[in-house]
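Exam review. A common question shows you a sequence with its structure tokens and asks you to describe the fold in words. Practice with the pair below. Do the first one on your own.
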Amino acid sequence: MSATCSLMVFTDLDGTLIDHTTYDWAPALPALNTLRDMSAGLVLASSKTAAEIGSLRQKIGAEVWPAIVENGAGLLPPGERTVGEAGQYASVRAALDGLPRDLRRLFCGFGDVTPAQVAQMTGLALEDAILAQERGFSEPGQWSGTSSQKDAFLAALAEHGVTAQQGGRFLTLSFGRNKVDQMRLITGTYRPRHTIALGDAPNDIAMLENADIGIVIANPAHPPLPELKTEAAGRIIRTMHAGPVGWNLAIRDALDRLEL
């Protein structure tokens, strides 16, 4: 397929485009409008479900582009609100529930609690928490054990083919595929001349390193990311401001660097 855009932007949501605490993205509107005016592709890439991203993508005005859902475990086609019944979520839950009890009790997933408890865990409104439980591919949750117990937990899950990714808030379990896997599929389809990626958490690192310019958004809620592989080559921008404020300023900086 020939190039459909000169630029494609891949962005994490919580703590990046969306404020970590308030879930507001309004401060990023100037840069979002600039990207829209130049017909740049905007791909949302998040741990959020298709149900969550489908609604948000429409509000942001990015529904004509695919979205990466559940930390890359799934892909939401343009214009769609659901990905259908993937069946993977039930299998992830079965593997999780098959673990030894002393390990299983240390992980509290979204499927273990009520919508009200998900709202408390995430800070989401109740209606949004309900959408967060409409999962097709992966199980996010909170870990309460030690690092050595976590190693044993992950090793036991690996025997069932389940892997884990650490995000800004949750440890997410799935049968593989991550944000950069889906990023490569999308760029292989659209073949943009330039790519920008933005994120704030460990599960964003590969995506940041595979973009022409990777933007690390400051997030005071957790430690900063380590130096990235492409940083010494000048392909990484680190923001001073957090969330959508940093996102807005960094997009403008990246566009200047790419002379777009």
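Now try the second one, then compare your answer with the model answer below.
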Amino acid sequence: MWQSPNDVVLISDPRVTGIPVRECGEPLADVRGRLRVDGRLADDEGAYAHLRSGLLDRLEQAQRVLPDGFQLLVVEGYRPIATQRRIFDGYRAELQRTFPEISPEEAYIAASRYVSPVEVAPHTAGAAVDLTLCDPDGVEYDMGTQVNDNPEQSDGACYTDAPNISAEARNHRKILAAALEPTGLVNYPTEWWHWSYGDRYWAMTTGASHALYGPV
């Protein structure tokens, strides 16, 4: 099983889960019509294309500073709790089948490298966005892996600072980060495509005393 580097704080870590949430009440906003949205994970209700309005405002700021020829491509935003639980439980069960020697507790922690436990998941708060870069025609740039490739599938190349990707892909990840970080977003370092604002992981990373967004 691909292990997390020791300096990566996983979202299941008590340093993250112990952070309080002071819900600010900001509404969800529809990304469609404001940024380019990909439909690969579209649900019938359109939840995937919604984000907290403050996060969407920040993404629009990031879009404006990208180099010519680059656009943000939003893949998934808000995720209902039932969907989050299904994804997490499914991946944890897959890990236990593949690596029967690990304990349930180890499987829980390992699963959190790729998908958040429900109780702390930023997608259920509308506080996280999975996204990539594309050209004006919607053709995605090489980022080293596909969005949502897990650590086993990618041999760890999904990690933002993975050494086993091309120089071109590494440069594209840097372009993405250079646009998003100045707006206040933080990256989950096991997934180059996952960025968030206002959730517990953001609070832990930035030193904020509390998260702004809880489950919607």
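Model answer, second protein: Strands lie at 28-30, 36-37, 50-52, 71-76, 128-134, 186-187, 194-196. The mean pLDDT is 94. Full marks require stating both points clearly.
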